[in-house]
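Quick start: load a record and inspect it. Here is Flagellar protein FliL:
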Amino acid sequence: MAVATDEPAKGKGSPLIMTIVGLLVLTVLGGGGGWLLGTVVAPRIKTATAAMQTTKQAAGDSKQAAAAALANGIIALDPITANLAYPSQNWIRLELALVFKGQPDAQLAQAIHQDIMAYIRTVSLQQIEGARGMQYLRDDIQERVDLRSEGRVSKVMFRTFVIE
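Running the structure step on this input writes:
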């Protein structure tokens, strides 16, 4: 015999109510995520944009600085990029500046640039490893500049030095 009960069957609720609750939870999560992005990430974007504008202004100022350096007897050479003699798959990039005694000479600076580039192609990685190797490279380049300029260049300044 079957027993009949008067209690209604307990369910999880109607599918419509569960859908509405799910949408409410997703709406709250979306709103919280938007608030988080607006308060945490947006100020960082504003700071980065301001930094980019400062960099653009500095680039304009660097042209003025280059003109001032030329007036003070300093010529920045074009970057020198060349493969090393050994191992040949490694390359070197140098950015140098020459400090002239008196009036700078652009033709002499170009001749020195070509001379340094030819020298760099004869250097091996083992010769320029470490602090001592770097000092030897600086001394060798300074000696070549002194010979080429006949004393008209007082100093060679290394702006960048990269080996890959």
